[in-house]
Amino acid sequence: MKTDRRVLVTKEMIGNAFVDLLIEKPIEKITVKELCLKARVNRSTYYRHYSDVEEVLKEKEDLLYKSVLESVKVISGEGKKTNYLVEIFYNLRQHKKLCKALLGQYRDRGFLEKIINIAHDRSIIYWGKEQPMETTGQLEKMYSFISNGTVAIIQDWVNSGMTESPEEIARFIQKASDRVAGLR
Question: pTM above the 0.90 mark?
Answer without folding.
Answer: no
